[in-house]
Structure formats: structure tokens, C-alpha cells
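Might I ask for a little of your time on a matter of protein folding? The record follows directly beneath this note:
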Amino acid sequence: MRRKSSRSSPKPEAPKCNKYQFISNYTAQRVAGANELEAILQEKGIYNSSLCTPNVEKTDLNSSDHFLSLEIFDDWEYDTFDPVALNVWKNVEALAIFPPFTDWHHVSVLSHEPSSNSWEVKRKDTSSSHRIPRLQLYFLFEDPYKFADRIAAAEKARKTAENAIRFRFLCKHLSSGGCFAPGRTLEQSIRRRTSEEVYAIFKNLYESYHIALAVGKHLTQDSSVAIKQPTIRSMDSAKHTASPEVARSPIAYLLDCFRRKTLLCDRNVFHALRFVNQECEMVRKLPLFIVANEKPIPLEEYAKQNLAQTSKTMKYLQNSWIERSTMHLHRMLARIGDGNFNIGVSRWKIYSVMKLKRLVEQVLYRMQDALRDLLLTSTTAYVHYLVNDCSAILAIEQEDSCYSWDGNLIDSPFEPKRPAVFYLTLEMGQETPYYSTDPDTFPDTLRCLMDDVLTECHFIHTIEPTLMQSLIFAGNLFLSSVGLLDPLIVQRREALLEYYRKSLLPLKAYAARYTAYRELFFTNVKEFIEQIKSADKSSSEIKEDIALQIRMRENLEHTVPLYIVIGPYWINVAPLREALIRKRLELTAALLKMLTEKLRLKTADVIGCYNTINERMCEKPVSIEHIYDIRAYMEDVPELVSRLEDRMRSILYEYEILDGFLHNLPDADFQQKWNALAYPRLVLKQMVSVKEFHETEVDRFRKQQFADEAAFTASIEDINAYISKFTTLYDVSKVSEMSVEVRRLWKTLQELIDQGHVMNRRQELFEMAPISLNNLFELRTAFKAYRELWTVAADYLKLEETWIGNPLASVDLEGVRRGLQQTHDSLKDLLPLFREQPQLLAVVEHFILVVESFRPNLDIMERLKCPYLEAIHWGQLAKEIGVKGKLSVDVGFDVFLEHGFRDHLETVRRVVVRAEQQRLEQEARWAKEERIRQIEEDYRRARAERRQKRTEI
């Protein structure tokens, strides 16, 4: 089952061993050099000569020389790290001492032999390497005083061991002569109760014990002897087979009981616990959360980095920590072999009473303690990092939902004591400003980051299944971790959530202040300019608008910050600030451009007026009239130029507006402005040239007038002769040709009259006598009746063709009647004019007869266009008249004339009358049916109303 801790508050960590030292930085140097190390060693009474390994073959036990190697008594508990687990020693610089043990030298560490704890090093000044014990090697990152204590402890242990060996040697080779044998009474008592073998063992132990007492007493009295009596005595040899009650001394018995009770009965157990403790200490210092950053980062990036760090640490906790701890225990306990620490035990009953189970529980408690310390430390650092101590935020009442930012936008009253954690960018939305990360996600995200880690830490397996693989364990054995409802965790979670929930109030209130800039942010420059143009503002009003935009831009630069810190948030306002300033600059530039374009158009209009004046004056005259028109226009040019100069002066004032805003005109506009200022002089100069040119043109046109007058007289004579000859023609079969020719002659005659008027006006301008046009007027009066005859006849024949050839349905009977009457009246009016010309009078009478002969067709057309004629009636007409074919109103009237409908007028009248009667009868029948239908409908409606009013019981 999963073990859970019942403790609600963190338990203080157990005190470390005095020999233990924790090294946080393996690159730090604790001593300056060899001289400083030797000084520290000498303070402890350690000299270089004491590290010498003695020559065992020449050692005299009677002397005080050392005969045991010092590395045998090295206490490995002083080791600062596990050389197998940590590779910090590889190629590191250290201090070492070599035979003849005179000085310490700087060396580089090459390799390590784990079984003997010997190290291979190389001096810097030589290429050869040496293998030395650990006591002769000092790492610069370890505590020199602890290193001195390690050597001193080894020397003390060697001295104790050599003294015990000398004492035992002295006791063993001392000749007692039987004086230390048991008394006779004791000898007889033992032999009587036991065998000879037991007595021999007892005698040997008895003599050895009393010899040791005697020697010890002698050594105590003689202080000059180097050998001292050992404080703890043990039996000489393990080969004695006497019973424990007889063979053991009280001290040995107590030592045996202690070994049975304690777990630390073997040095491998101690080293196993030491290694486990080292792993736990490493776990306590693992980084579980991201609690430091050089600069603020977005929440998404922080969550991503935190997830990566958490995943890495959890992978170490769930895999590497368990594997390394199991490896250390397995390596150390495997050296012990069978017994209380046999990791190969395969029976639960045996395992439950073994010391191994107590050892595993001890390891379990240490690992759980380390895990709890890790979580409490990590969550403390996590909350401490995120809650960066802003007292103003903590003073906010969380219930104040209407919190508003009352100060300016630059100074923040929520400056924290420590740097901000998260990076936000303030942006402008369609409705309201918003942040690059939704502020409402901060509390839940940060809480989930902490709770997820606490949850995952409940799934770290224990070491039992991996250490004792011969036993079967449940699959859900996990280390007990800190719960989500632990009071400390709840307190820290609430502090975190409270801080960030309160921080949202000023954060949102600050963003809300930028709502005032939303309209500016989304202003469309083109639409803004179009509104200004539609308002038709004057240049002075546009100047005020430009000045306003400049003032507003400067106000933005002084009132909107680049960034601001609000509690844990570092808010980047620079993009929004730059966008607002850029929009003000764009509006200013657009207004200046609009004013420039406006002035360009005004200036172009002035220049256009000047160009119009020039073009009007410089027109090439085509006649004398044209010259007089230009001269009349030139009389008003000085006044026009003066007015244009006044307009340009007012435009120059508007150009000064652009100069006031230091706006550079485009080269084309600049050139245009100065051209407009220079035009008056050019126009007046051009007037002089034009007047000189007109003097030469007047002489040329006078000469042309004489030539035109002669040609005009010849044209009059030619047309008079042609008309006189043409009026003798009266062939009625050539009506069309005659009408075309008379129209042409009439047009020519009219053009000659117009030309005569023009020439008379020119004669007046040239101050010459006018030309007589009376003969042209008389000729036109005489030719008018002749023109009327042929044009009226030709027009009527064209109308008659359209009436007969077009479908009967498209013929307008009223138009036919009106056309016949107008033609008849026009021809009647011509009769008196041709009484003296019999041939032309006959022509008029001929066309009158043609008109009268068409009148009977009008009656037939009216009856055939009766709207009541249907297919059956058309069929009856065709049958009675004898027409083979289908008749209808869509057939042309020429078809009816071909079949002789003019001879069957009564038949047509009878059929039409019958069709009208049938239509009247049908309409009467339809009216009657409609009345019946209406009566039935009224009856059904009344019956439905009565049913609705009826009451059901």
C-alpha cells in the first residue's frame, strides 16, 4: 500500500554527521596553495613525515616506529562525494604529496580505483604518473579542516591498532613459568565436572587473562614504555570453541547485544545509508519550478519552460533517484552477503523479521522526508518568485469590481519590490483594448502548474520492488508526498491566487483607460480626409486641424509610456503607443497633403485661366470677324489679369500655412506656384505681339474678300439658270428623284443667302459697300411652291407604302386619317399658285386624286381592326370572300387589297357586327356567372359565421 505521512507540519531535518560536508560548488578553491594547507595540517599536529608508509620488514615492535600503513585506517565517511557517481574529479587540479614526503605539489587527477580508494595523479612538471592513497590527495574544493581531521583520525586509529598489536605480542611471548595457571582446587573442580579438552581451553584463557592484567599493571606503573594497555580487550583467537557464557567477557557480550540491535553493525550498512543520504540531499536541491528569469516572459512561455523543468525533475525523481538509491543499496548490501541484510531473501516471513526490512523503512522515511522538503522548499520559492511583494496590490479589496485607474498612464502606483515576472503587450481591439495574454488565465494557470507537480509527486515508486527482486510487491507502492490539502500548500495556494486575482483589477482598469484611443486607432485616413473635403473647410480651418493633430501627437508622447509595471506584470505599451503616434503623423501628413493638393488645384486653376487668356488671344484668326472678336476680348484682359493676381495673392497666404508647418512642397508644386506669379507679365507681353500680328492678318482677309465676292456673284448666276431649267420638269413617275433634287436646290439657295449675309457683315467691317441679295430672295420665293409640290407628293407616297406594307395590327388609323387630310390640304393650297402653269397644275390635281382614291381603304381597315374578331371570324371571312389562306390582323393590308376586300365591304361589315354581338352575349353570360358565384360565396360566408356563433352544450 501507499505510505502516507500523518504529519501536518514540516519536520526538521535530522542533524548531519560531524564528518559530513556539503559542497555546493565544485569549482571553488578553499586554500590559496600548498603552504596554506601545510599550515592548517600543522595546527592539527600533522606533519608531512607522519604520512610516510613504514617498512614492515624492518619494524621493531619494541620501538615506537609505525609499522602499519596509514591508508588502512582511512575513514571514508570524510569523503566529499562518491567518485563512482560524480565525475567532478576528472582532470581536476589538486594537491598531492609523494615520497619522500617533503612538500605538497600541484597535480592533475587521472583515474580512481574504487576497491582501494587509490588515485592516479600526474605532476604538472613531469610526464610520469603516481598512484597514491586518498589521504595523500587534497581536492581544492573540499574543507581543509575536515581533511586535517581525516588524517588526524587515521593517525589516531593507527596508533591505537599498533599499541594493541604490541600489547598482544608482549603478552603472547611473555614466559609465565606456570605462575598464572589456575589453582589446584579450581583445577580439580573443573576436571571433575568437565573433560580435559574444556579444561585445556579454560586454562589457556585463564593464563592469557591474568598475564594481560599483569602486563597492563606493569605498563601503567612504568610510564617510560611506549606501549599502553588497550581500553577494550578481546579474545586472542577465534579458534577457541568454548561456550559463549564461558568464553566471553562482559564487554564482549554487551558488544554482541549491541550489534544484534543496531542497524549499523556493518560498515557497508553505514556507507549505504550515507550514499542514500547523499542522493536525498541532491533531491532536496533539485529545481522543481522556474523561479528565476533574466527578464519578464509571457505566461505561455513560462508555462512551457516550467513544464520542461518539471518534466526533467520528475523524470529524475521517478527514475534516476530510485535507480541510483537502489544501486547504492544493492552494491553495499551485496558485500555483506547472507544474514540480516540478504537482499536475495525470497520469503516474506523471513523478510519481515530481518534488519533489512528496518533498513528499507529507514531509507523510505529518509526519501519521503527529502521529497517533502523538496516540495515545501520548491513551492515556497515558486510562490515567493511569483508573488513579488507589491503592497499596493495586496491592499486592494478583491470585491471592488468597479476599480478604476485614476492616475496618469505613466506612473504606476503598483511598483513591486522585486522585478516583474510576466510579459504582456497591450493591444487595441475592435471593442476594447486587450492584452496579448488574457489576464483571467493567470490564476488558474499558475495554480494548475503547482497542483500538477504536487499530484505527480504522489507517483514516485519505493525502492523495495527494485531492490528485492525475489519478492513480489504491489504495483502501487509510492512514496508519501505532500497533499493538495496540506495546510501549508493551501496557505501558499491561497496567497498566490489572492495576489493574482487582486492584480487583475488594476491590470484591467489600466487597459480600460486606453478605450479613449480606440477611435483614433481605427480611424481610416482616407475616410477622415474625405470627411474634411466634404465639409469644404477653408485653409485656416485646415490649419487649425493640422495644429490640433500635432498637439495631440505631442500629448501622446508625454502621456503614454513605453512600458509600465503593475505588480507581477511588465506591460509593453510601445507598439500601441507607436501606432497611435504613427496614426497622428499619418493624419497630419494627410491634412498637409490635402492642403497641398487643394492649393495645387487653386494654383492650377489660376494658371489655367492665364492659359485660357493666352490661348484666346493667340488663336489664329480665320476671318475678319474673328479678329474683331479677339480684339474685343483683349480689351478686358488687363482687368482679368488683375483679378487673377488678387486670387494668387490669397493663395500665397495659404502657402504660408504650409511653410509654418515646415512642409516642403514637391518640386512640381513649387514650380507651379512661381509660374503662376510670373504669368501676368507674360500675358501683357503677349498682347503686344498679338496686336502686331492682327494688322498683317487684316490686309490678307481684305484681299480674300474681293475674291469671295466675285465667286459669290458667279454662284448666283449659275443657280438661277439651273432653277429656271429645272422648273420645266413635271413627270409624276419621278416623284422621288424630283423631291431629292428640289431639296438639294433649296439647301444650296439657302446657303447662298447665308453666305451673302456673312459677306455683307465683312463688307461693313472692311468699310466697303454691301452686296445686293434681292435676286436671291426673289428666286427663293418663286422656287418655294415648286419645292412644296414635289416634297408633299414624295412624303405621301412613302406614308402610303408604310400603311399598305406593314401588318394591319401596327397601323395607326388616326395617323392614316391625319396624314390623308394634311396631304390633301397641302395640295389644295398649291392649286392657286400653278393656275398659270397648266403642266404643274395637272401634277397637283393628279396627286389629289391619288389621295382621294385611298380614302375607301380607311373604312375597311377600321372594320378589320375590330378587337372582337377571332380566328373563327377570320375563317368565315376567308370562306365567304374565297381567300385560300389564313387571315389575321398580323397580315399586311396589301394582302387584303390583292383579294379584293374593297369589293366585299358588306360581307366584312356583317361579320364584324356578328362578332360584336357574340362578344356582348359572352360578357353578359360572364356577368351572370359572376353574380351567381358571388351569391354562393356570400352564402358560405354567412353559414360559417353562424356556425362560429352557435353554442355547444
Observations:
- The beta strands are 93-97, 104-113, 118-123, 129-133, 137-139, 422-428, 433-435, 563-566, 569-572.
- The two ends are 81 Å apart (CA to CA).
- Residues 1-16, 232-249 have pLDDT under 50 and may be disordered.
